[in-house]
Amino acid sequence: MASRHLARSVVMQSLYEWDFYDKKDHNLESIVERNIQEFAPGLEDKGFIWELLTGVIQKISKIDRIIEKAAPEWPVNQVAIVDRNILRIGLYELLYEDEKEVPPKVAINESIELAKNFGGENSGKFVNGVLGTVYKEMIEKNNA
After folding, report:
1. What CA–CA distance (Å, rounded) separates 45 from 3?
2. What's the pLDDT at 21?
3. What pLDDT is stored for residue 44 in this prediction?
4. What is residue 100's DSSP assignment?
5. SS3 16
6. Are 15 and 85 in contact (CB under 8 A)?
7. How many Cβ atoms from other residues are within 10 Å of residue 75's Cβ?
């Protein structure tokens, strides 16, 4: 499981760099390759990195709208870049991954850990609040 946590951190760092440069003039694929070499050279299952990254990028517009709905006082472009990309990863896993592969609690806890390790003082609480809000809505919708 530690390898999946490492893979998530590589995806987060890559999305951060790509987003920092306004998603322009920087090839995301080369950013990821460089980050794999720098931060995860011995990682055996690099496929998870690419699956997660591809999924987030394909759903990024939908995910950003969900962030805005779950945290209306924080427009996506005003959320710290680290927090924004941790939320993108967490929401992708929460909403679009197979629950048997990534249970909701794992998606949330992994995101909180990333926020604590890479974000600011309140990042863990913020990420927990947004993902918790979305998760509660998922449960309510499923029970309706």
Report:
1. 8
2. 87
3. 86
4. T
5. helix
6. yes
7. 11
